[in-house]
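Q: I have 279 residues here and want to know how they pack in 3D. Can you give me a structure?
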Amino acid sequence: MEGLGRRVLVAAFDGWNDAGEAATSALGVLRREGAYDEVFSVDPELYFDYQYTRPSVSLDANGNRMLTWPAATILRPARSRRGTQLWLLTGVEPARAWQAFSGELVDVALREGITGFVSLGSMMSDVPHTRPISVFAGSDSEALRRELGLERSTYEGPVGILSALSFAAEHAGIPTATLWASVPHYVAGHTPSPKAALALLDRLEDLTGAVVPRADLAAEAEQWEASIDAAAAEDDEMTEYIHQLERTRDTWDDPEASGDAIAQAFERYLRRDGDPKAG
């Protein structure tokens, strides 16, 4: 894909941008199924509030205690291949100095010769779990929207770190796109959401032309959907509510309405849950 080039940085962050852990789960599949080398990791002292995002302690293979600090890390593919390759940016949404944080990471991306930036996010929305997961694919670049058939968001309001990074990348001359999966809001007890993670990876492959692994997400998505079906079968009100969402979604799936409907759902979510401390 000429629009994003052959070196595409894909980003996902824990926190407000990650309903149902769909975005970080999708990036986790890419990381586990590929071979990557660490390029850069930010200094956590500069960007994280440890009372909000605490370090964690664990035991290594020898039983020694290890302390792991919040991080944001860029990873490059360990082996060069033909076609589009995906770099990864993974981490925790920072608590402070977002402009410096974004600038530092974009500088590293430029040094790596990154030609495109794609952010992965997920949002709680009024959608049924029984239908395909909607993915809003957008860009602030008119040329990229025209070339890749992306939407233009008209949202105004609070944003997460993905927006700050996208603005910094665009300002530095790196074309950017964003993918947001709509996760049914009534499935909070069924997290993570492999069906939404799978939808993000499917759309990422379409967008970039890269070969994107899915691991066992298809089977996990079926199990996830079946577990919600079982819970709904014991709750008449929930069953009826899901039927209402299905009827609405089927109306949205009309080709003339679907793009606007997904965009409106995205904007409703941001206006409703726009507190960056949420999630």
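Q: Anything worth noting?
A: Residues 274-279 have pLDDT under 50 and may be disordered. The CA atoms of residues 44 and 71 lie 6 Å apart.
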